[in-house]
Structure formats: C-alpha cells, structure tokens
Amino acid sequence: MDPDILRDYVSEARELLEQAQSDALALECAPDSDAVLASLFRAFHTLKGGAGFLDADALVEWTHHLEDLLDKLRSHVLPVTPTTIDVILKGLDVIQCMLDELGRGVYPNPGPSDLGQRICALASVEDVHTSPPESASENVRPIAEQPTGVESAESGTLQAWQKLKPDGKVGMYVERVSEGKDKGAVCVESASKAGDDAAFDTISDEEFEQVLDALYGHKAPGVVPPAERRVMDSQVASTTVLPGALPQATAPAPVTSVAAVKTERPSSTSETPESTLRVESARLDSVMNQVGELVLLRNRFLSAMQTTIGEHEDLARIAREMDLTVNDMQSTVMRLRMQPCKRLFQQLPRVVRDVSRQLGKRVNLQIVGEDVEIDKKVVDALSAPLIHLVRNSLDHGIETPADRVMLGKNEIATLRISAVHLGDKVRIEVSDDGNGIDAQQVKQKAVEKGLIGQEEAARLTESDAIDLIFRPGFSTNDVVTEYSGRGVGMDVVKKTTQSLRGRLYVYTNLGTGTTIAMEFPLTLAVLPVLYLRLRRDVYAIPISSVSSLIDVDPQRLYQVQGRALYQAGHEQIVPFVDLGEILHQRPIELGTEPTDGILTERGLLVVSEVLGNEDSVVKPIDFLSESHWYQGATLSGKGEVVLILDIANLKHSQAEPKRGVA
C-alpha cells in the first residue's frame, strides 16, 4: 500500500465514520428521514470505494453488507428499529477496528462472523408487496459501431456504455479500468461532432451508485481519495464521466473526496469551491513554536530599545509596525489550531445511548455550543475525560426512572453538555438533573478508604469535601461495575484539566443535580501574563485570572476561624493570599513593606509590586519539586527566566509548610 494514499484515506475515513455514527443516532430519533438515510448510505458507499482502491477486501465486504442493509432501510422494505440501529452501530465499531489496522499498515482481518450474519439476515429481508426494482444495468447496452472519442493506448482498457435518459439525451458511462492502470479517474467523450455547445447532464447520487454497483459489483470504486487522483495521460484526456452530447475537447471535473459526507448538487452559478489543504498537526505545532519564539524576540527587542526608541521617530514607527505584524501572525497561526467543539462532542450521543440502556435509565441528551472553537490540543486531550464525566453522571448522578417518579421528577432525565466563550477562555460544562453530591457521604467514604482521617474530615467545608471526588482511589460505589467502583477517572479529569492550564469547578445541589465545569484558555501556545515582584524575585500570573488591581488597606483584613479574609468591596469578602508567606515563608508586612493587591478568581493576591503585562510562551518545568505551584516558565522581555504562578494551587498551599524559592 502506498503510505501517502493510505494515510489520507484513513484520516478522511475516520472523519466519515464519525459522521456516519452521528447519522445512525439521528436516524433512531427520526426513522422516516430520507435525508439521513441517504447520508448514511453514501457514507458506507464512499468507505467501500476507498477501501476497494486499497484492495482492503475485508473492509470492502463489510461496508458492502452494511450498504445492503441501508438500501433496505431507505427503500422502506425494512423498518428502522432500535435493533437495526444497534447492528449498524456495532458494524461501525468493526469498521473503526479495521481502520486502526489499516493505520498500522496491515490489511484488516474479516469482521466477526456472528455480527456479519445478523447484518446479512436483516439485509436479505424481501418486501413481498413490492416488485423488484429495475436493475441499474437494464436498458444499458454496449455502444456498437459508434466512435466513443476515447483513444486507448491498450485495447480493452476502457469499455463505454450508453443509456437513454428520460429527456432523450444519451449518457456515456465507463465500465472499467483494467488492472495495473492508474485508477485516478476516466473520461468518455461523445461521438457528436456537430459543433453544438457543450451540454452537461447531472445524474443523481442514487443513479451514480446504481451504475457503479451494476458495473463493479462488490468492489465498486466509489469515490476517489484525493491522494490517489492522477491524470491518465496515456489512456484518456480528462477526468470524469460526462453524460450527454459533448464536443471532443472537455475539461476535467473534480472528483469528490472520501471525507465529503454531504454531496451538493452543482449550482447553476459558477461558484469556485473553497480549497483546503490537509496538513500534519506536527507541522502546525512547529510553526506555532517558531511564532512563539518570534514573540519572545519581539519582546526582548522592544525592551532593549525602550531607552532610545523615543529619540528616533523612524525606529519607533518600525517597532510599532513590527509589533502589529507579529501580533497578526500570531493570531493567524493560532486560528489554524482551532477546532470546533463538535469534534469533541460528537462521540457523546453514542456513549449516552449505550450506557443509559445498560443501566436501565432514560436520558434526554442536550448538546449546546458545537460551533465554539478551542485549541486542537484541548480537543485531543479532553476526549477521554469528557466521556468519563458523562458516564459518571449517568451512573452516579441520574436516578432510575422509578426513583425519579417517586421523587416527583420526570422519569426522563436531562444531561446537558455545553460550550461557551468567556472572553479569552472556553467553558465546557456537564450538567445533570440527578440526585446531586452528598458531601457527608463523600467524607464518610474518604475516611473508609483511608484517604483522610476523622479529624481532617470534621474540619472540611462542604466545598473541600466535594473536592475529594478528584482524589485517586476515591469512589462512592462499593461494587465494581463496568462504569464505576475502581476509584479511577475523576483524578484523571483533574490532572488533564490542569495540564491544559484549565480550571475545574463543581456546583451541586442535593436532590436537584450537579454541574462540573472546565475552563480552558482559547489557545495554549501563547499566554498573556502579568509580571509582578515579590521582594527581589520576579514572577508572572496569567492575565485571564486577574479581575482587577487594588490598593491594599490593612484595616480591611480580618481573621475568621483561622482564615485570612479581605473586604475587597462593600459586599465582597475574598480569601487573603500572601505570596510572601507561601514562597518565602515570611509574610509581607502591610504598612511597612511596599505592597500591591491583585484581585483574582481565587482571592486577593498580595505582592510587592505589579510590573506590567506581556505575551509569553510557556515552557514546562516538571523538574521542580514545587512544580504544582507553577504553570510553567517563560522568558521576559529582558531575557530573564520567570516562573508563572498557578493561583489555585497557591491558595491551597497557603496553610502548608513551605520551603523558600531563590
């Protein structure tokens, strides 16, 4: 197998498979939708065509069986039922495994025989009330003694057929391309030499599929993958099947990509389709890293020129233009990395369907914000944690229909997945209207499992108790099931969120439901930061976590049950976080030492001085023993290494023993 062709096919086929799964689930909700049936049928037909070019016979056979089943459904010979949807979804799982094998460079093994027999049994159902449809090959006759306009370098390479259309026009069709020849695309030209204007006759998707099946049988080539398109110089002159009367000189028509799930009819206007280019993500990452380095160089240049730039008007203008250009470049490259949350959410309907049926629960899934864009790294990393959150809601949060009725709730629970932009962040929420989280039960289970002691449990607030669900090894289930009880999962959710510079929030009301929210920066490549000074050391914090800058008034500082609180406004009481106490083991002396206050989402952060803001490129610092205090490190405009503080972890660390940081 050609590795380039294989890579392109597998990549596009996976996208097509995701769409097919969405169509199958949509079909269960709208079984009479001919549009969904047609889309799903085309997906299998296209998958089969690409597999045929790769000689992946097992995949060709499997998709052909599913295609036969879909043909029965779209002709309404077979009704759409949960059983048929189950079979289709399991068939898609088999295709996924086959694509994984192709991705490893090996031909896939045949699918499971028992499932294959079920698919064939369903596909073999006949409608006794309907006469058999006219074969696509009927009324198709060889072109006898008529010049086809095709000059073949080798006899028998092409065989053309014509079919009389209802409007009286004659369509030309290619029967086959011989083995060993380039299979990119072919052309048949009309024998008409009357000099008439070119006339194009559009055929429907169904007609095209029927002709392919009639001519190729089980190994119809379907749609040509873009990587395999070639111009057949020695055999033909252009690249499509052109029905109708045409002059001999005809232009090639585009061949549909395997990833094109929905086929658009050619419009009457000559619109040029938007061109796309598939690029490896590693190349985008490399470009983003280089842009990040350029941002750092820009910062250093502006810092170095600060003392002299005011004296030279031309130099100041060049510096401003360079700043704007770098910002535009940075913004453009960051947009290249953005992907819609639909890529993250589209797997969830299948998860909800399977798990809710296993647990005997009825759930209405609502998905909001599929068009919200977020960094590709977040999309890739958040897939498994998001699935766990959904399973957790279904298993722990949502009650059985009988219990919900007893509680006066609708027996159909609501599970809502949403994404929304919040300034320079994206917030993703998983909400259910289940029984909520019992903080007392969580503390009791944590004590039983030895995660905390009785005394510590007694001191925990409700919020701190709920945070225990993210401890490794914690689970409220005593019995291990397929979905819970092992004490793994929620800790992975928290670690993944933190690794993506995100924040995790839990909102719960006992008896009414739970919402778990995750907030992430729009992009992970470049981070705007605020520089600050603690005595002689310089640090940075993400600007996204800063609410405002305030003057610190010692008269507004209070001690309540051993906790330092600050009155930031008339009705705003926030935690007081002394950075000197945490990092230097020596509190900042208010009224004696210079102080500035930074109001953050976690409280008032007290520092020696606020220095200014700058775009930064974050580098990992896992080698530090106190790395949980920091998000990473960056280079300032002066070329100094600066640690970026993690405000949330600093707040939790305030009461713990500290060791100084030089």
UniProtKB/TrEMBL annotation:
UniProt cross-references to Gene3D superfamilies, sorted A to Z: Histidine kinase CheA-like, homodimeric domain (1.10.287.560), Histidine kinase-like ATPase, C-terminal domain (3.30.565.10), HPT domain (1.20.120.160), SH3 Domains (2.30.30.40)
Record GO terms (molecular function): phosphorelay sensor kinase activity
GO cellular component: cytoplasm
Keywords: Kinase, Phosphoprotein, Transferase, Two-component regulatory system
Catalytic activity line of the entry: ATP + protein L-histidine = ADP + protein N-phospho-L-histidine
Residues with Phosphohistidine modification: H45
The enzyme's E.C. designation: 2.7.13.3
An individual GO BP term: chemotaxis
Histidine kinase domain boundaries: 265-524
UniProt-listed PROSITE patterns: HIS_KIN (PS50109), HPT (PS50894)
Domain HPt: 1-102
Role: Involved in the transmission of sensory signals from the chemoreceptors to the flagellar motors. CheA is autophosphorylated; it can transfer its phosphate group to either CheB or CheY.
Protein name, UniProt field: Chemotaxis protein CheA
Species per Swiss-Prot/TrEMBL record: Acidithiobacillus caldus
